Amino acid sequence: MKTDINKKEVEELYRKLNADAESGGYHLNPDTDFTKRLVSGLLVNQKRYGYQTCPCRLAAGEKEKDLDIICPCDYRDPDLDEYGTCYCALYVDKEILEGKKKVKPVPERRYKQKSSDRKEKGKKTQNKILNAGYPVWRCKVCGYLCARENPPAVCPICKAKRERFEEFTLR
Amino acid sequence: MNAKMKHIEGENKGRVVLYALSTCQWCGKTKELLKSMNVDYFYIDVDLTDGEEREELVEEIKKYNPDCSFPTMVINDSDPIIGFDEKKIKERLKY
């Protein structure tokens, strides 16, 4: 069950993630040793499960059950807002990037983020959506919305794949 | 306790059991901290197990931590320390 990952693979994925993050307004943890060990964990999970689940969470090994913890996970952005880092600390906010704040462990929100709370909040800020004749799709990772027949193959903001989009409808 | 638990020898501060993931850096930091404190402890990387063994471990962890998050540290079968909580770990192990 031990999976060997070589240095070159880690460097390649690290460079890609870093470029994607910066182009979308996100930042990788500046502690490169720590970050590269996490990247290595992503590659281990890729080889084990066929997709890159969070290195700090136990994957079920069934994609359907693991979708929310495929990196970037559904919890990254709320954790970045609240703690300045995501759960595993692969992603950090600007203050941590610039060394103004230290990285601290983040409590698990996976089972606490109740959809009912979110719906209540949603109601308060609900705006009328213009009927443009297209369905609206929402990226569950970063909240990006687009109106088109199908969600994009890759989220242009956070690079999450199509399967992470949900239809965004008025409740 | 699971038979595959690894034993790290050190000073006996009670029965310290660490449930971890091999890919998790916070688990790595916890192992390093325990080592630097020279604490005698047992650990298992749950992601390296599978099948029934993993199911049993998950049930065991959920008794202490219903979220089954990692690292989970259990000292003398009670009061788990969830996550890399350096202050709490040092307090509880009187370091």
Description:
The complex is a heterodimer of chains A (171) and B (95). Chain A is mainly alpha-helical and 171 residues long. Chain A folds into two domains: 91 residues, Ferredoxin thioredoxin reductase catalytic beta subunit (Ferredoxin Thioredoxin Reductase, Alpha-Beta Complex), CATH 3.90.460.10; 53 residues, Rubrerythrin, domain 2 (Single Sheet). In chain A, 36% of the residues lie in helices and 8% in strands. Chain A has six helices and five strands, in the order H-E-H-H-H-E-H-H-E-E-E. In chain A, strand 3 and strand 4 form a beta hairpin. In chain A, 33% of the residues are buried. About 3% of the residues of chain A have low confidence. Chain B is α+β, with helices and mostly antiparallel strands and 95 residues long. Chain B has one domain: Glutaredoxin (3-Layer(aba) Sandwich). Chain B is 35% helix and 31% strand. Chain B contains three helices and five strands. A five-stranded mixed β-sheet of chain B has the order 1-3-2-4-5, with helices on one face. The N and C termini of chain B lie far apart (25 Å). The mean pLDDT of chain B is 95. Chains A and B meet through helix 2 of A and helix 1 of B.
Please outline the helices and strands.
The complex is a heterodimer of chains A (171) and B (95).
Chain A: H1 7-23, E1 27-28, H2 32-49, H3 63-66, H4 76-83, E2 91-92, H5 94-97, H6 115-124, E3 136-139, E4 145-147, E5 165-167
Antiparallel strand pairs in A: 1-2, 3-4, 3-5
Chain B: E1 6-8, E2 11-20, H1 25-36, E3 39-45, H2 51-64, E4 72-75, E5 78-82, H3 86-92
Parallel strand pairs in B: 2-3
Antiparallel strand pairs in B: 1-3, 2-4, 4-5
CATH architecture of chain B: 3-Layer(aba) Sandwich
Could you give me the name of the CATH homologous superfamily of chain B?
Answer: Glutaredoxin
What name does CATH use for the topology of chain B? Glutaredoxin
Biggest interface, and residues per chain? A-B, 23 and 23 residues
Helix content bin of chain A? 25-40%
The third-level CATH topology of the largest domain in chain A is Ferredoxin Thioredoxin Reductase
Our count of helices of chain B gives: 3
Proportion of residues in extended strands of chain B: 25-35%
What is the tally of helical segments of chain A? 6
Rg result of chain A: 17 Å
Query: How many domains of chain A, as an integer?
Result: 2
Strand percentage of chain A, roughly? 5-15%
Order of helices and strands of chain B: EEHEHEEH
- Which CATH-level-2 architecture of the largest domain in chain A? Alpha-Beta Complex
Residues in helix, % of chain B? 25-40%
The overall average pLDDT of chain A, rounded, is 89
Distance between the termini of chain A: 45 Å
C-alpha termini separation of chain B: 25 Å
How many β-strand runs of chain A? 5
